[in-house]
Specification:
Blueprint lengths: L10 H17 L3 H17 L8 E5 L2 H16 L11 E3 L7 E3 L2 H19 L11 E3 L4 E6 L8 E5 L12 E4 L5 E4 L5 E6 L5 E3 L2
Helix pairs in contact: 1-2
Organism: Corethron hystrix
Protein name: Alpha-ketoglutarate-dependent dioxygenase AlkB-like domain-containing protein
Length: about 210
């Protein structure tokens, strides 16, 4: 210590990670919490390999798949889907409603198969399919806290924005890139955000 080399060792990423370790030292009091955050930060800073220059990118999903997902989403909402609870990184305020979750296992598998080659092209390496969670419907006064994903299961990931209500306000994804910049990305229906999810801190914090 100090860490001799970050991955990637760009000036911006090094500065960002050094600030993160300083924040950890000065603000986190619980030993248990400090340990968990330290491990996640070490993984992001030096242990997880990077595959792209910036750590995230934006594209469009195939239109046929977008239409199928929009139809599945609206059909699922009409079917009174269950609320999603006990997700550590989702925060809701006061009596705000929890997100809804629409389970479509067969559709999830189709999405994984259909989009695999796009993820491989973006990352530049062959990939092993891991998981497609399903359709999550956020409602008013929910936040997705800033976090990195677990590197055992999440390396190259994407968020596919299916649809939103006509009267909703833009709800940007915030993501830190490998040059040390913080970016806000507003997605439209069919937009797909690729990202290196165990390296780049991301969320929807407001």
């Amino acid at each position: 210590w100090p860490i001799p080399r970050y991955v990637p060792d760009t000036p911006g990423w090094r500065a960002l990670m050094e600030r993160r370790f300083q924040q950890l030292e000065s603000t986190v009091r619980s030993n248990h919490e400090r340990y968990n955050i330290f491990l996640a930060t070490m993984t992001s800073a030096i242990l997880a390999q990077n595959f792209t220059e910036n750590g995230w990118g934006l594209t469009r999903c195939p239109e046929v798949l977008r239409r199928e997902l929009v139809e599945a989403l609206h059909e699922g909402i009409r079917s009174d889907p269950p609320e999603e609870h006990d997700v550590d990184v989702i925060e809701k305020f006061g009596d705000a409603a929890a997100p809804l979750f629409i389970h479509k296992p067969q559709l999830n598998r189709k999405v994984l198969r259909t989009l695999k080659s796009m993820h491989e092209e973006w990352a530049g390496v062959p990939l092993v399919e891991e998981v497609s969670y399903g359709l999550r419907v956020y409602r008013n006064n929910s936040n997705l806290l800033m976090h990195v994903d677990k590197s055992v299961t999440h390396v190259i990931s994407s968020i596919l924005h299916i649809d939103h209500s006509a009267d909703s306000e833009p709800w940007p994804i915030v993501i830190e890139d490998l040059q040390g910049n913080t970016n806000e990305v507003v997605l439209k229906s069919g937009d797909m955000l690729f990202y290196e999810s165990s390296k780049c801190l991301h969320g929807r914090p407001r």
